[in-house]
Design brief:
This protein is an alpha/beta fold and 138 residues long. The chain is built from six helices and five strands. The chain has helices at 13-20, 25-28, 34-49, 65-69, 80-91, 130-137; strands at residues 2-5, 56-59, 74-77, 99-102, 117-119. A five-stranded parallel β-sheet has the order 1-4-3-2-5, with helices on one face. The longest helix is centred in the first third of the chain and has 16 residues, at 34-49.
Amino acid sequence: MESFWQPPRELAPGIRVFEEHATRYDPWFEADPGRVLFEMELQAVRLALEGLPRPFLEIGAGSGRFTEALALEVGVDPARAALDVFARRLKDRPQADVQLVQATGEALPFADASFGAGLLVVTLCFAGDPPRLIQEAA
């Protein structure tokens, strides 16, 4: 696992909740209805990714639940606490080859066309500048 930490300039107000409550996100997905909804969302995203070239990037990866389950190569999130939860889980899975990057979706630290697909799973609503995030992802 390779990590690249780049502190964001300033956290959007919607991001603070993920810094303060990073450990509360995953447990919701471990019991019903979260477990069932997570599986349904995974199926939908897998279908959307079919046939697209790798590598894949998740913008707003948070604790990495989707990044890990979909075997994505890179997960980006501005909330360091959420990425710390993800990094702790990856320590138990040495076979996982995921790069964690602390950055905002509005200012991704990658060259254009670096990925075959970029995912925004329940992320856009927390962005400080949604139109800029969409433009950057494109």
